[in-house]
Amino acid sequence: MPTARLDRLIANMGYASRREIQALAKNGHITLDGAALTAADRRIALTPDLETRLVVDGEALDPLPGFALMLNKPLGVTCSRKEAGPLVYDLLPERWRRRDPAISTVGRLDKETSGLLLMTDDGALLHRIISPKRHVAKRYRVGLARPMTGGEAELFAAGTLMLDGEDKPLAPAELEVVGPQEALLTVHEGRYHQVRRMFAAAGNHVETLHRESIGGLSLPADLAPGAIRRLSEADLAAIFAAGGG
């Protein structure tokens, strides 16, 4: 069972500086199983139930390092600090934004795309999801400017479509027509603006784009735009249960 120094663990989770954590402990504001931990340099076991047993200044401990969450990303919010506008990180609890290791997005959705976005502080999990070798599927609901012609499904499934400026064809993708100007598209790659560029190659323009699922994990209907939810072990397993992993 891994262990960590109390002050380092809590400071890295964004609560306060190590000096401030030491003061909290000295004054009896950190408890484990109801008993005060006055020695901030004590090593504690990182058991799965520690979040329910360790209390900091009257509050149960935040998620331990190595967790993941889902966000229903709203329109107008960006995943990149290089773009103007509010960031997805602004939607996290303020303390979580100071964590080390930091919470990062698992891939990106552009500012005008909404829907399921995963975030984690677990680098190994992040790379497992986005690795091209895993072929984790991503399903999008697409609203188009013009009616489809009827040849899009065959074009996207062929595995021969070349995007402008690239020298490698896209992997086959599955298109399900919902209406004349609405479709569900499942891709197994994560190229830059891939869905928008695919429909541009088919002579159309994407007006609305919403990601509904990653692997076998779907965006819950009751998760409001801007809301976050921690992923369970079952959720994580679902990501890789469909579409590779």
Describe the structure.
This protein has 245 residues and is an alpha+beta fold. Helix content is 21%, strand content 27%. The protein has seven helices and 15 strands. It has helices at residues 6-12, 18-26, 50-53, 123-130, 152-157, 194-201, 233-241; strands spanning 3-5, 30-32, 35-36, 43-45, 54-56, 59-60, 68-73, 104-105, 113-120, 138-144, 174-179, 182-187, 206-214, 217-218, 228-230. The strands form three sheets. Strands 7, 8, 9, 10, 11, 12, 13, 14 and 15 form a nine-stranded mixed sheet that branches. Strands 3-2-5-6 form a four-stranded antiparallel sheet. A hairpin with a 2-residue loop joins β13 (206-214) and β14. α1 packs across α2 (18-26). The longest helix is centred in the first third of the chain and has 9 residues, at 18-26. It is elongated, with a radius of gyration of 22 Å. The model has no long low-confidence stretch (mean pLDDT 95).
Could you name the key traits of this structure?
single chain, 245 residues, alpha+beta, 9-stranded mixed β-sheet, 4-stranded antiparallel β-sheet, 27% strand
Describe the secondary structure blueprint for this structure.
Elements: E1 3-5, H1 6-12, H2 18-26, E2 30-32, E3 35-36, E4 43-45, H3 50-53, E5 54-56, E6 59-60, E7 68-73, E8 104-105, E9 113-120, H4 123-130, E10 138-144, H5 152-157, E11 174-179, E12 182-187, H6 194-201, E13 206-214, E14 217-218, E15 228-230, H7 233-241
Parallel strand pairs: 9-13
Antiparallel strand pairs: 1-4, 2-3, 2-5, 5-6, 7-9, 7-15, 8-9, 10-12, 10-13, 11-12, 13-14
